[in-house]
Design goal:
single chain, 225 residues, alpha/beta, Rossmann fold, eight-stranded parallel sheet
Length: 225
């Protein structure tokens, strides 16, 4: 796997259903695999059905600290966020990975920690996009979502993660076909395409220098399948 480099804080945000949670979990595992003391924070208070906490067992086995709302994976829709997040952004003792809620509404939760992150100035804000999703099929649509998230969270994006896929039906050609639209978004924003994400089986078939292979996260109700 390519050495992607990293900052102390990496934040993943994007349109609802873009796959940012899967990427955040895999990024935390990547950092841990490089010998970094790592914590991952679930700031997604929008989607109660698909959260970082779904991977709690894998993260615990790897020795990665998970910070999440006590209401994650429950039917309680309440934006309660633990105080541990302030310690994570203030003490700067660990590599920190943030899974930000979908769209501008989800990014609002980030706002209370933005001053600490900007003051440290050692962060990567990654825009995750799936060009096969209904509201981000074109670069112009993705750019609109990007700006809404930036306005809500108060942190500008620094790079792009192309996570274009069709779920279980994805083939390598689907990923390759999305590259042109990703390049258009890159040109429109001046941001680097930091990674092209794909499930590990697909990733090994792609002849690209920025492929980031993913182990797909299972939802709780799928764990016995």
């Amino acid at each position: 796997m390519r050495n992607f480099g990293f900052r102390r804080v990496t934040l993943f945000a994007g349109h609802y259903g873009s796959g940012k949670t899967n990427i955040a979990v895999n990024w935390a595992l990547y950092l841990h695999g490089r010998g970094e003391k790592t914590a991952i924070c679930d700031l997604d208070i929008v989607n109660p059905y698909y959260r970082t906490k779904d991977s709690a067992d894998d993260l615990e086995k790897a020795g990665i600290r998970l910070i999440s709302s006590p209401y994650a994976n429950s039917n309680v829709d309440f934006p309660a966020l633990p105080q541990d997040i302030y310690a994570l952004v203030e003490r700067r003792e660990e590599k920190a990975v943030f899974d930000i809620g979908g769209d501008d509404r989800g990014a609002l939760a980030l706002g209370r920690y933005t001053p600490y992150i900007l003051a440290e100035n050692d962060y990567e804000m990654v825009f995750v996009v799936n060009f096969y999703r209904p509201l981000t099929r074109r670069a112009e649509e993705a750019l609109e979502v990007m700006r809404e998230i930036e306005d809500a969270g108060g942190i500008p994006f620094t790079c792009i993660a192309n996570n274009s896929n069709l779920g279980a039906e994805t083939v390598p050609e689907d990923v390759l076909r999305s590259a042109g639209e990703a390049q258009r978004l890159s040109a429109m924003t001046g941001l680097e395409i930091k990674m092209t994400c794909a499930e590990a089986r697909i990733a090994e078939q792609l002849d690209m220098d920025n492929v980031f292979p993913l182990k797909l996260q299972a939802r709780p109700f799928e764990s016995n399948r």
